[in-house]
């Protein structure tokens, strides 16, 4: 299977830039999600992954 498509909302893009979250880290998270390592399956192909940045919990996919 090919590389999964990853989309970032404008809000998340700004937050990722502020927190210095690299696209490579997001792609790594997408790869892990494709292997079934997800925090929540919201249905319709939407999943939720959680990141810990600067001692704060960041939820991707809200």
Account of the protein in words:
The protein is 34% helix and 27% strand. The chain is α+β, with helices and mostly antiparallel strands. Strand 1 and strand 2 (46-53) form a beta hairpin. The model has no long low-confidence stretch (mean pLDDT 78).
Main sheet makeup: 3 strands, antiparallel
Helicity level: 25-40%
N-to-C SSE string, H for helix and E for strand:
HHEEE
Give the helix tally. 2
Model regions low in confidence, pLDDT < 50 over at least 5 residues = none
- Give the class from helix and strand content and strand pairing: alpha+beta
3D shape: globular
The pLDDT mean sits at 78
Strand order of the largest sheet: 1-2-3
Query: Tally of extended strands?
Result: 3
Distance between the termini: 26 Å
Kindly estimate the percentage of residues that lie in beta strands according to DSSP: 25-35%
> What is the alpha-carbon Rg in Å?
11 Å
In short:
By secondary structure, the chain is of the alpha+beta class. Helix content is 34%, strand content 27%. The protein has helices at 10-18, 23-34; strands at residues 40-43, 46-53, 56-60.
Question: Topology, please?
Answer:
Blueprint: H1 10-18, H2 23-34, E1 40-43, E2 46-53, E3 56-60
Antiparallel strand pairs: 1-2, 2-3
Which key features would you list for this structure?
single chain; 62 residues; alpha+beta; 2 helices; 3 strands; 34% helix; 27% strand
